[in-house]
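Researcher: Quick test of sequence recovery. Tokens follow.
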């Protein structure tokens, strides 16, 4: 499946999940979670990649973590900064093992979808030793997915 097809599917799934109030594969971000820049991150392991993303509304940084636990675990967090921080906006964060479509997606795909003030995630997938992951992030200027202002995708990263 192409990156565009995955993104369209992820946005459609995100809309359904927002409407039904369900978040698949991840617990919603809460004030008790820690994010990069805090004393302890809610992702196990260490940061292996960071991706700064800028829009006219503010900035987001995507942190990609790797831990050797559970036959390798990759985890991601998207943290807002600038004018966006503190404003509830739509975020659809996704991570998948790059070979997930051949395996039947669960548990090799995880999402965090919602309207968040400071970050989306942490979401993780197991069994990533010797494998690459794909990440996607859709950002909205409002609480709704209807006003997407930025889509970000990286494929076959953090191969380990």
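Model:
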């Amino acid at each position: 499946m192409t990156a565009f097809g995955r993104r369209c599917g992820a946005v459609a799934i995100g809309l359904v999940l927002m409407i039904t109030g369900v978040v698949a594969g991840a617990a919603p971000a809460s004030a008790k979670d820690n994010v990069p820049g805090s004393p302890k991150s809610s992702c196990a392991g260490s940061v292996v990649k960071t991706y700064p993303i800028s829009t006219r509304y503010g900035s987001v940084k995507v942190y990609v973590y790797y831990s050797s636990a559970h036959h390798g675990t990759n985890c991601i967090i998207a943290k807002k900064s600038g004018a966006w921080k503190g404003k509830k906006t739509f975020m659809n964060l996704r991570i998948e093992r790059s070979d997930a479509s051949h395996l039947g997606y669960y548990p090799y795909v995880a999402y965090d979808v919602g309207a968040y003030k400071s970050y989306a995630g942490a979401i993780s997938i197991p069994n990533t030793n010797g494998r690459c992951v794909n990440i996607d992030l859709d950002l909205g200027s409002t609480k709704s997915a209807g006003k997407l202002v930025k889509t970000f995708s990286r494929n076959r990263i953090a191969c380990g």
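Residues 3-25+35-157 form a domain with the Immunoglobulin-like fold (CATH 2.60.40).
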